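If you are new to this repository, start here. Below is one unmodified record pulled from the training split, so you can see the exact layout before writing a loader.
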Amino acid sequence: MMRVLVTGAEGQLGTDVTRHCEHVGDHVLPMGRGDLDITDRAAVRTCFEAMRPDLIVNCAAWTAVDACEGDPARALLVNGAAAGHVAHAAAAIGARLVHISTDYVLDGTLDRPYRESDATHPLSAYGRSKLLGEELVLQEAPTATIVRTSWLCGEHGPNMVKTVLAMLRTDRELRFVDDQRGCPTFTADLAPLIRSLGSLGVAGVVHATNQRSVSWFEFVREIVVCVGGDPGRVTPISSAELQPPRPAPRPANSVLDNCRLDEIGIARLRDFGQALSELVSVLSSPPDGGAHTP
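And here is the target side for that same chain:
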């Protein structure tokens, strides 16, 4: 068992990382935004020196992609410089580090899934800030693990599954883009993989998503089917037809090839279909329906 410090512990992924590590018997040190400001280099160093974790999982980030486009300086601070602070402090105490990154560091122009060795070329301020974070992490802590993932969905925090379930309770038209493809990834599945990578001390970039790629349009149709709705209610549109237009450009192809997991000998995450069904069941349960076990 390990002492595991989780930054961004109140977020969508951080919550499930915290839950999973507690479930397997780790001593978990959850750090929410109010507990630790990762943009404060001295505060991060002081915290890590006091807590002395074996493993640090950095889930803290500013993930509002369009808001980042309007405030790139803040994005670079939170997603870039602060990641470097975390890595510097982790290396100083000899702790292993897993840092969470994103498909948005890629430009989406390839006609195949992106491998870890492919060149990065972010299109948005968010993507540029996350790429800076990757670079600073590996500069400060060369043995750190960078986990790139995509299209996160979970029980906690906003995501596409929750958005669609809310829309289905209204008469709103379901119009979703069919020219952006990726792999929906479920935090309840990703959290155990993150711990495994940290426990093994895997160095460098690792792509980790649930298997099977879809467009947003196709994904929404599957969500609708999961709740017994009519998938014909979902209409495909192009990104150019979005109203209002999105400030930040998105990669057209952000499908991540998880080939490094094969090299390491760690099983890929399952097809997202079953994970989607399980999440819809959890989100559809009454509030007093019992605690969810990761």
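Two things worth knowing about this chain: The longest strand covers residues 96-102. The chain has one domain: 3-218+238-284.
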